[in-house]
Write a structure and sequence with these properties.
about 15% strand, single chain, alpha/beta
């Protein structure tokens, strides 16, 4: 069975793209799926830290010959109850790696063959350059991570159009770090206005969650009942084809005043 290959992308830095990558990967493994998660943010890689694996890294996606010879030996598993279903390949530190796209895709296919995943999640750097290249060579879809700020939503709209023009069949929006208090005070737009501004089909809204932020700082996961964890499960289930509402199980986001 061919895996679903998705880039996790953003047009702006500091949006929480890598946190979304980890949260979604965990949600998919909770639901019984096998996930290959690859860090392709060569300028600011951090997935190893978010997964609590920074001391375990020996090889990275840049070690092409090692990956092609022994891809299973490069992949790491986080210390989760479902961690054996997540296969992680780190990125090199230092920001000096700039692979030719054909070589990178060869590495990705070798990693894919080693673990036979249901989903491949590629955490790319902020910007459009690498997603453009991967859109034509490997990935079949993208999750665009944006905040509720107007400049972020406009950037997501532009990126979605660019990737769809390249033939990606699955481009969806994830609104991250949604702040209900900012909506109540009138400082930020509501959920429906944010979705309308982005003009992209939305697959999830991740609420601001202190538990998630503190857990990420120590390479851990938030509790299953935290608002962010519930939201990530909703995204995962929607990606799996289930008809789940955006705010299922998150009463705090279903208030009319936030819409």
């Amino acid at each position: 069975m061919t895996p679903t290959k998705l880039m996790i992308s953003s047009s702006k830095g500091g949006i929480g793209k890598s946190t979304v990558s980890v949260g979604l990967a965990h949600a998919l493994t909770e639901l019984g799926k096998t996930v290959l998660l690859v860090d392709l943010d060569f300028g600011n890689c951090c997935l190893d830290m978010l997964l609590g694996l920074e001391d375990e890294v020996l090889f990275t996606v840049a070690d092409r010959e090692t990956v092609l010879r022994d891809p299973a030996g490069v992949l790491l598993h986080p210390d989760w109850p479902e961690g054996d279903r997540l296969f992680f390949c780190p990125a090199p530190r230092g920001g000096q790696y700039n692979p030719e796209i054909g070589s990178l895709c060869e590495v990705l296919r070798a990693l894919e063959d080693a673990c036979r995943p249901d989903f491949v999640l590629l955490d790319t750097a902020a910007g459009i350059e690498l997603p453009r290249a991967l859109a034509g060579a490997y990935a079949e879809g993208a999750l665009l991570v944006a905040s509720q700020m107007p400049v972020s939503l406009r950037a997501a709209e532009n990126t979605a159009r660019a990737l769809e023009d390249l033939g990606l069949s699955h481009v969806r929006l994830v609104i991250n770090n949604f702040d209900p208090d900012a909506v109540r005070s009138g400082e930020r737009c509501g959920i429906l206005a944010a979705i309308d501004q982005a003009a992209a089909q939305t697959v999830g809204v991740i609420p601001r969650d202190r538990e998630l932020m503190l857990a990420a700082e120590r390479g851990a996961l938030p509790g299953r009942k935290s608002p962010a964890a519930r939201a990530f499960r909703n995204v995962a289930r929607r990606l799996m084809g289930e008809g789940v509402r955006l705010f299922d199980g998150i009463p705090s986001l279903r208030l009319k005043k936030l819409l």
